[in-house]
């Protein structure tokens, strides 16, 4: 997906990894939401990982999208995990209702 803020890869074990990068704001919200919904509803991997290591910032719309992705995954028997988010984003996600066990490889707050 050249020129986009979101790329997708599939691992040999069937894990689907979504890589958002840069700053996800309202202009990019639709792209992330469509990618996640397509993955959960159509592809239906056993595990969906959203790798947040290359994300500079996340607005409220996309925080809500990631929180909803966890619930959507539960509805469709897809385990959703959010990896490598910074402490600030982890705090926002937790405040939005994302359970702590879904946040993996998160650096502790300084």
TrEMBL record:
<dbReference type="Pfam" id="PF01740">
    <property type="entry name" value="STAS"/>
</dbReference>
<dbReference type="InterPro" id="IPR036513">
    <property type="entry name" value="STAS_dom_sf"/>
</dbReference>
<protein>
    <submittedName>
        <fullName>STAS domain-containing protein</fullName>
    </submittedName>
</protein>
<dbReference type="InterPro" id="IPR002645">
    <property type="entry name" value="STAS_dom"/>
</dbReference>
<feature type="domain" description="STAS">
    <location>
        <begin position="13"/>
        <end position="110"/>
    </location>
</feature>
């Amino acid at each position: 997906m050249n020129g986009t803020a979101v790329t997708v890869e599939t691992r040999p074990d069937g894990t689907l990894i979504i890589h958002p990068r840069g700053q996800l704001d309202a202009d990019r919200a639709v792209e992330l939401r469509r990618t996640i919904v397509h993955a959960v509803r159509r592809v239906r991997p056993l595990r969906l990982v959203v790798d947040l290591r290359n994300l500079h910032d996340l607005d409220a719309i996309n925080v809500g999208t990631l929180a909803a992705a966890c619930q959507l995954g539960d509805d469709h028997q897809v385990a959703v995990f959010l990896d490598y988010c910074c402490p600030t984003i982890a705090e926002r996600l937790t405040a939005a209702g994302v359970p702590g066990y879904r946040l993996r490889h998160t650096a502790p707050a300084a």
